[in-house]
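Lecture 7, part B: from sequences to assemblies.

Below are the input chains for today's worked example.
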Amino acid sequence: MIRILSFTLVVTTGLVCLGVYRIAEQARMTAVVLRETTAAILQEKQSMTVLGAEWARLTQPDRIQALAERHLHLSDRPAPQLASLGQLPPKFLPQPETAIRNANAIVPQPQRPLTALTPAQRAPTVAALHAGT
Amino acid sequence: MAAIAEASSVLRGRIAVAALFSAVGFSVVTARLVDVMVFGAGPVHSAASVPALPNRADLVDRNALLIARDLPVSDLYASPAAFWDTGDAAHQLAVTTGADEQRLRTAFRPGKGYILVQHAITPDMREGIMRLGLPGLDFVENHKRFYPAGRTVAHAVGQVDTDDNGVSGLELGLEQRLRNQTEPVQLSIDLRVQYVLEHEAREAMRSFRAKAAGGIVLNVRTGEIWALASLPDYEPNLRKLETGDSVRNRMTQDVYELGSIFKVFAFTEAVEEKTIRLDEPFQVGQPYRLGHYLIHDFERLGPMLPAAMVFAKSSNIGTAQIELRSGPEKQKPFLRNLGLLQPLKTELPEMASPLYPRHWEEVEAATIAYGHGISVNPLTFAAAAAAVVNGGTAINPTFLKHSDIQHGPRVISEETSRTMRQLLRLVVTDGTGTKADVPGYDVGGKTGTAEKAENGSYAHRLLISSFCGVFPIDDPQFLVFLMLDEPHGNRESGGFATGGETAAPAVGRIIARIAPLLGVERRDTYAAANPSTLHIVTSFGREF
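Predicted structure of the full complex, as structure tokens:
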């Protein structure tokens, strides 16, 4: 009986040792993975930090203005061109009927001398003929 | 039998001992198992190369755009004993890292220990060093402060030393906060406005061949400094000065006699004390004698001018007469109340104290009235001018973002503030500051042209020309100050180097560019809907 008990205890101890070893190994491997993941996260955060700084450098107003002037031909003094929506006239203004009835297609004659125009330009427009000029 | 019984007893004893050991071993294993399974494996001590944490928090502008950040870099160290050829190693490392070769050759002599080769090794540089294949090199993780805006905001932000300690500007002024805080520190500066201010100041400095320039954009309600520029400037990322660079912040570190721009305070005092009527005529046709001194105007402005036009046309003669009605005994406490006689307190550590005469008599009062005999730094001036136009309450300028309107102590009445705003508008519509006007934004302001003191007297050709603009003048939100140090007239200015011809147009351009960014709406109808109450005064002035 004692032999059986002793044998059982020894075998159980061995199995438990194996179990503990396996768990310890799993924990160690998990710790390695965790360490690598933590380091990778920090590396990524650092990359984001560097990229954020790079983005800030690339979006500096002086660089944007230089690009806008070179490629978009934008003025750097836009104040007269800017207005709020409230300052704009209504999109559809009701027109008085008299104005519509009196509307015509007379176009003012260009001020340039005819000699400076091309033959095609010299041909009087319909609107000009209608106006008698 | 007895022997057998004795042997059996010994065997049982041994078995019992073995069983005890097994039980103890089993208990230990069980306890450890329970510990691992129930309580976990304990903290994991990582031995991986974890990047070093930043030493300082980010600095961002009011729109969260980056101004300063600690970037990860490495410091390179070497053990010279490991090199086969120290001279060759010094040469290769110097070429790759930019370190001083002679210093490395000296440091790599036998018997030397661990030597710093170069600070702030970038990833590209590190790759080049690794390709050298030299033994005995060690990289130590570190940080380098990076300023994406470079020169644009250099003077306000300042810089750090090689150990990441703040040595100037807000880097020094906010040192504890930047060290202790992990979240970014948000400044009141707007990088877009800062760029416009710096750009226009640089253009004006170039156009008028000025020695230096500077400017400030200040919210007159909250006290927030939206932009502060000082030229010449420097590149903070280089950690060294190039030819022509300067680390002096002329807006806070230097004090100037600002000239006629100071008349704002003389007239504020007169209006507050009710010592003048705005339509009251003053003789300005002849130089004004005060003791042994003669006070002149820049040009003859006629035999007489009403008080409002004395301000608009910037007459020293008229201003001196107006100031003397109050006298030095009232002028000094008035200026002190506006904060012009004590050093301004902001987050910037570089702040010069005002200079003013110890003996403050009538002559001093008269000259101080038109901005000579007292020297203040431009930021102090701007803070006092903001109190004059914002309804009459003192503000405390700050570089930290906040949205609260400051309700400092009242320094003048609202009525005086309103009158001063009308006078400032008159300067731009009918006075010396017409070139600062921006249609739709109702700019008010005051010009200043001060002669610099040289060898004990004033030099007529060495000027400090400035303009202080406020907009929109009926309900001011922002103050724009620009100063040029020793400008020279050009064709555009008709050969004049005065504040009205040099600084005023630059301020006009700045306002035209930044007003949309600041959310200030154009009000083309304002002038028609709100005729100036000074119109009569202006007409009156023209009759003289």
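Note for the exam: Helices of chain A lie at 2-58, 61-72, 97-101, 119-122, 126-131. Keep this in mind when comparing with the next example.
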